[in-house]
């Protein structure tokens, strides 16, 4: 009888150990898969070429808002960004602004933003920029490029010019000319 109890206790111990070991291995496998997925989604920036072509790490820059606040493109890492080069005198820029505002309002809580870079050097009157933005109802971030440095880096020779940048800071697309709502929505929903 004692021998049977001893054997049952050993079998119970082995079964318990087997269950514990299986659960532990499954948890480790799940952690490993989660880490692998995170690693896939994270990009090693040191291995990427900085540039404006598709697949390049978008060149970082720092510009000031109308209020004097400094904003860097890299501040938006982790978000999808539509980087838009524009001016108040540009008719196609005026056409796309309302759709950009709609996109911003719809997706701002889903890690999507619009960053509008005003080609300030081309403006006749810099004081007209805030009035323009108020009239258009623009609430997305707007920065000033007073020396056209960013326009030069991003080769914005025609306005508007936009870049779609994924959440890892990688250029996915360049668009020359105005965009419309459906076009912007399609681009941002198709990228990481």
UniProtKB/TrEMBL annotation:
Transmembrane segments: none
Keywords: Disulfide bond
Domain Thioredoxin per the UniProt entry, residue ranges: 52-192
Pfam families linked to this entry: AhpC-TSA
InterPro entries membership: AhpC/TSA (IPR000866), Thioredoxin-like_sf (IPR036249), Thioredoxin_CS (IPR017937), Thioredoxin_domain (IPR013766), Thioredoxin_ResA/DsbE_sf (IPR050553)
Gene3D superfamilies reported for this sequence: Glutaredoxin (3.40.30.10)
PROSITE patterns attached to this UniProt entry: THIOREDOXIN_1, THIOREDOXIN_2
Keyword Disulfide bond assigned: yes
Name under which the protein is recorded: TlpA family protein disulfide reductase
Lineage: Bacteria, Bacillati, Bacillota, Bacilli, Bacillales
């Amino acid at each position: 009888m004692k021998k049977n109890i001893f054997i049952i206790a050993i079998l119970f111990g082995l079964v318990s150990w087997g269950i514990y070991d299986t659960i532990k291995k499954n948890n480790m496998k799940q952690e490993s898969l989660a880490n692998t997925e995170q690693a896939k989604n994270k990009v090693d920036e040191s291995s990427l070429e900085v540039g404006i072509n598709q697949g390049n790490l978008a060149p970082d820059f720092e510009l000031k808002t109308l209020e004097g606040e400094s904003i860097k493109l890299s501040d938006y890492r982790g978000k999808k960004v539509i980087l838009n080069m524009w001016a108040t005198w540009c008719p196609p820029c005026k056409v796309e602004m309302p759709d950009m505002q709609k996109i911003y309002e719809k997706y701002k809580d889903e890690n999507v933003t619009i960053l509008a870079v005003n080609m300030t050097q081309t403006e006749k009157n810099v004081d007209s920029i805030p009035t323009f933005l108020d009239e258009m109802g623009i609430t997305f971030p707007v920065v000033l490029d007073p020396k056209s440095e960013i326009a030069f880096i991003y080769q914005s020779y025609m306005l508007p010019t936009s870049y779609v940048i994924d959440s890892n800071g990688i250029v996915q697309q360049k668009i020359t000319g105005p965009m419309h709502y459906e076009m912007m929505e399609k681009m941002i929903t198709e990228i990481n």
